[in-house]
Amino acid sequence: MLYRKMPKNGDELSILGFGAMRLPTMSDGSIDEEKATQMVRYAIDNGVNYVDTAWPYHMGQSEPFLARALADGYREKVKLATKMPQWMVKSQADMDNFLNAQLQKLNTYHIDYYLVHSLVGSSWKTIRALGVAEFLDRAKADGRIINAGFSYHGSGEDFKDVVDGYDWDFCQIQYNFLDQNIQAGTKGLEYAASRGVGIVIMEPLRGGNLADPVPSDVINIWNEAEIKRSPVEWALRWVWNHPEVIVVLSGMSESYHVEENLKVAEEGFANSLTYEEFNLIERAADKYRELMKINCTGCRYCMPCPQAVDIPACFETYNNLFMFGGKDRLMMMYAAKLGGILRGAERNFASQCVQCGQCLDACPQSLPIPNLLEKVSEEFEGPGLEERMEFAKQLFANNNF
User: Fold this and answer.
1) Mean pLDDT (whole number) for 301-321
2) Which domain does 392 fall in, by range?
């Protein structure tokens, strides 16, 4: 296992972190504890020392599971990360209640890396006004948390405001070779690193979509490489090639995922890809983009929409359907994300478009945005949307301390 140093505290962290969001499950949806425990402990025995979870993962069962999986001395071998569900917070008292409940659920006296979960520009303004900075300072002072950070799912233009809004120890961003200009993106990664903020990466495989199945056109590109690597290895090596990255989280759900990722991590050196290899990955990324139905770059020049439609998020979900499949999962994510449940905000559905045309002049790609939003609505809304939203509320907003 290779290790990299957190800039502000000097922690030597494994470049591979274990993300406890996609643990193996039983037929009833509950965590397969025997298998999952074996996976977590095997990863730790082989050098992984960063484990990440959150309040809503596995319908609230990920944290209690990890308390059991990290028994028998394993808790002392890792840095443990979990997250405040900021969309459920209404006061500073809520912040304390969530943290104290998480300490109990995880059976630990402190959280090594505590994040404000799933920030976007608007939710950062809300949680900041509620006094999150004072709460984090207090929780660090009394020892309940050691390092304070945030995970981010907003626009690139708002990311700098969040980074500059508090003396963060670290942040967690989505980053992979396909999402270089999505959300925080490369510019955000470089900016946060320039401020001494440690970088933890989520979605290096885009939720597994860059791993399997892989479009045949992309496989043909990988096969051109002089050194043969799996799609997983190409994707992970690309992220680790960036020296700013400290930890890359992988949501492993099978034992072979752990074994494969551990093997790849042995060669995850910064600046280790050759010029030819880097260009090969860029070609693969370009091929994925060719498969997209909507040529949206996520620049967000079309935002804000007067009807509150999150146009880039609608198009991203639609493109993912045609690049990767998995419609049932994407329909659930559409309901949760665009329904405002994950963000603690208003609905942002494609069907809210009234074809005012404001976005048309703003789009650098000259996309027929209202017409495209109709296609998104036809694909992801209609019968069953309210039921999916209700399920998502139960999944992400179970406010029981």
Assistant:
1) 90
2) 311-396
